[in-house]
Design goal:
- This protein is of the alpha/beta class.
- The protein has two domains: 9-98, Four Helix Bundle (Hemerythrin (Met), subunit A) (Up-down Bundle), CATH 1.20.120.140; 111-309, 3-Layer(aba) Sandwich (Rossmann fold), CATH 3.40.50.
- It contains twelve helices and eight strands.
- It has an eight-stranded mixed beta sheet with strand order 3-2-4-1-5-6-7-8, sandwiched between helices.
- α9 (212-229) packs across α10 (247-259) and α10 (247-259) packs parallel to α11.
- The longest helix is centred in the first third of the chain and has 18 residues, at 59-76.
- The relative contact order is 0.18.
C-alpha cells in the first residue's frame, strides 16, 4: 500500500460515515437558522453564529467565519439562504487554507536523518495508544520498518497496551519496567532505531496533566536525550486530542502546546460524537496542522486530514 497523494472514494465514504453524527446535528441546526428566510440577512447570520458555536467550532473561529460571510453578503448583496451551505464550505476551507491547516500530501517522512522519530503526546484516554497502533500499521503497510517505544512508564497498563498493539501489528516494542525514567526508554528506542535501520520510530509519552511544569520538564528531557542519539530527533511531535470532548480538547491543546513544541495534531473519536466542529476551531486557533483524524475503530480509520473533503462532508 502506498500513501495516497489524493483522496480516494473509499476515504470519502469512510469520512462521510465517520462524521454522520456531527453532520446530522449541524444540518438540524442550520435548517432552523434559515426557516422562513429566503435571504441571508442579519438574523440569519446571528442564527448561524449560534449554530457554529454550539457545534464546538469555538467562539473566536466562529466570529472569523461570520466576518468572512458578512463580507460576501455585502459584496454579493442578495444571497439566497439556499446558497448558505456552499458559502459556508467555501469560507471555512479558505480560513483553514489561510492557516495552512491540514496535510493533503500524504504521510511525510524525513528520511534524510533516518529514522523518522515521532513523539506522541496527549492525555490518557485521548486515543493515544490506538493512534500509535494505527500509525504503525499504516506505515508498515507502506513498506516501512517501524519500531515503538513505551516511554509512558507512569502507568503499567500503558506499557502493556502498547505491547499488545505491537504484537497485533507485528511491530517490535522497546520497553522497561513501570516507573523507569521515560527519557531512558526514549534513548534506548532511538538508539535501537538507528542501529536496526528502522525507517520510523514512534514513542509514547505519559499523558498526565496535573502539573504543567513537571510535564514540560519531562517532555524537554525526553527530547534532549533523543537528540543526543540522533540530531534533529524527534522530527515530529504529534499531539493526540479526543474530539468527543469538544471544548475540553481546546484546553488540552493549550496545555500541551505550552509544554512542548507540537508540530502536528491528531483528533480522534470523531465517529462517536456530534462535536466534529472542534476540528475547524483547533485548526484555526492553534495554527498547527491537523495531520490526522480518527473516524472509526479499523486500522485504516486514522485518515490524513484533508480540509476540503472534511468541510465538504460536514456541510454537504
Amino acid at each position: 500500500m502506498a500513501w495516497p497523494g489524493f483522496f480516494t472514494r473509499e476515504n470519502k465514504e469512510s469520512l462521510n460515515k465517520g462524521l454522520e453524527k456531527t453532520k446530522e446535528s449541524v444540518f438540524v441546526k442550520l435548517s432552523r437558522a434559515v426557516v422562513g428566510k429566503s435571504k441571508v440577512d442579519e438574523e440569519v447570520l446571528d442564527n448561524l453564529e449560534e449554530v457554529l458555536v454550539s457545534s464546538d467550532v469555538g467562539v473566536s473561529t466562529t466570529i472569523r467565519i461570520i466576518e468572512r460571510i458578512e463580507a460576501r453578503v455585502a459584496k454579493e448583496k442578495y444571497l439566497n439562504t439556499s446558497e448558505l451551505n456552499k458559502i459556508l464550505k467555501e469560507e471555512i476551507v479558505a480560513l483553514l487554507e489561510d492557516n495552512n491547516a491540514g496535510n493533503e500530501t500524504g504521510f511525510s517522512l524525513n528520511l534524510d536523518t533516518a529514522p523518522h522519530v515521532i513523539m506522541i503526546v496527549g492525555v490518557n484516554g485521548s486515543g493515544k495508544t490506538t493512534t500509535i497502533a494505527k500509525l504503525a500499521y499504516q506505515y508498515k503497510q507502506a513498506g516501512k520498518k517501524v519500531l515503538l517505544g513505551a516511554a509512558d512508564t507512569f502507568r503499567a497498563a500503558a506499557i502493556e497496551q502498547l505491547q499488545i498493539w505491537g504484537d497485533r501489528t507485528g511491530v517490535p516494542v522497546i520497553k522497561q519496567k513501570m516507573g523507569s525514567d521515560p527519557a531512558s526508554v526514549a534513548y534506548d528506542t532511538v538508539k535501537s532505531g538507528v542501529a536496526g535501520g528502522y525507517d520510523v520510530v514512534i514513542i509514547d509519552t505519559a499523558g498526565r496533566l496535573h502539573n504543567k511544569i513537571n510535564l514540560m520538564t519531562e517532555l524537554s528531557k525526553i527530547k534532549r536525550v533523543m537528540e543526543k542519539v540522533l540530531p534533529g530527533a524527534p522530527q515530529e511531535v504529534l499531539l493526540v486530542l479526543d474530539g468527543s470532548t469538544g471544548q475540553n480538547a481546546f484546553e488540552q491543546a493549550k496545555q500541551f502546546t505550552a509544554a512542548t513544541d507540537v508540530t502536528a495534531i491528531a483528533i480522534t473519536k470523531l465517529d462517536g460524537t456530534a462535536k466534529g466542529g472542534v476540528v475547524i476551531g483547533i485548526s484555526d486557533q492553534f495554527r498547527i496542522p491537523v495531520k490526522y483524524i480518527g473516524i472509526g475503530e479499523k486500522m485504516t480509520d486514522l485518515q490524513i486530514f484533508n480540509r476540503v473533503e472534511f468541510v465538504d462532508s460536514l456541510f454537504s
